[in-house]
Amino acid sequence: MQLSDLIDLKALLIVALIFIPLEQLLPHHHEQKTLRRHWLNDAFYLLFNGILIKMGLLALVGTLMVGIGMFMPERVGAAIRSQPVWLQAIEVIVLADVGFYLAHRAFHAVPFLWRFHAVHHSIEEMDWLAAHRVHPVDQILTKSASYLPIFALGFSPAAIAVYVVIYQWQSVLIHSNTRIGFGPFKWIFASPKFHHWHHANERQAYDKNFAAQLPFLDAIGGTLYMPDRMPAKYGTDDPVPNVYHEQLTYPFTATKPLDGAGLPSAIGESQK
Questions:
Q1: CB-count burial class (<10 Å; 0-12, 13-18, 19+) for 67
Q2: Half-sphere exposure of 82 (CA within 13 A, CB side)
Q3: Beta-carbon neighbour count of residue 245 at 10 Å?
Q4: Is residue 16 part of a domain?
Q5: What pLDDT score does 256 carry?
Q6: Alpha helix (H) ranges present in the chain?
Q7: Torsion angles phi and psi, residue 265, rounded to 5
Q8: Positive or negative CA dihedral for 152, 157, 162, 166?
Q9: pLDDT in tens, 112-146
Q10: 0.70 cut: is pTM over it?
Q11: Those residues with Cβ within 8 angstroms of residue 124's Cβ, 6 or more apart along the chain or in another chain
Q12: Does some domain include residue 164?
């Protein structure tokens, strides 16, 4: 086992030791068990899905950057890197989340892409572990939309590292079974309340809250939905299987016609 693998396992242990007690102290759904349904399947995602995603990201982003590098003037990157790291980090978070928002919205709007994203929306009990149930194709394309602008513009590695750390922790937090809402800052920073509504199996919540970190992007895009209450039901009515290998092949083997049915939008209403 390589050192990087040991570091990853140590990080996963730290995340578990933080979020499992947090969900017990501040739960949204008090009745939900720590070892809820399909937790083992999502643990498999946590442990093994990252390998496929890293390989895909390296191939896709690396290939595209070769072409972008031929046209992007070096002075652009030099000017950006001359800024303080804290300012670059803010710019990276905004740019990356704009890319995420657009890609995420596309996965809801395009029927074939929705088949990949439906795997993530098949989560019926939200918790920190559920954050990792994402089809590799979904994650590779969405993360590429986030990474390409910041790599192409030449932001410093330190600023990008700040973004990556914040994104990873916030991604786990917003899926967690907690009632954290961030009070008056809920319109600026994505909270569990904000993202739980994205996963809600309620008609008025379909196609809402696409941002990963910055809810005001949804306010700008007209897709913000955050009522005072929390959702009572999650998931999708699409026939997504419950085990890892079948979920990987589901987008290619689903027999449902690509007529919009299953999309959580006005196009189709199979989630109702």
A1: exposed
A2: 6
A3: 10
A4: no
A5: 57
A6: 3-25, 39-44, 50-69, 74-81, 85-109, 111-121, 136-152, 157-175, 192-199, 216-221, 244-253
A7: -155, -175
A8: positive
A9: 999 999 999 999 999 999 999 999 999 999 999 99
A10: yes
A11: 37, 233, 234, 235
A12: yes
pLDDT for position 270: 39
Residue with tokens 């590429």: 144
Give Cα 136 distance to the centre of its chain. Answer: 12
Q: Which two tokens stand for residue 262?
A: 């299953």
Residue 30 domain flag: no
pLDDT in tens, 192-212: 999 999 999 999 999 999 999
Q: What is the mean pLDDT of residues 19-43?
A: 90
- Per the structure, the complete domain to which residue 112 belongs is given by 35-253
Whose structure tokens read 């986030």?
A: 146
How many domains, the chain?
1
Residue 9 inside a domain? The answer is no
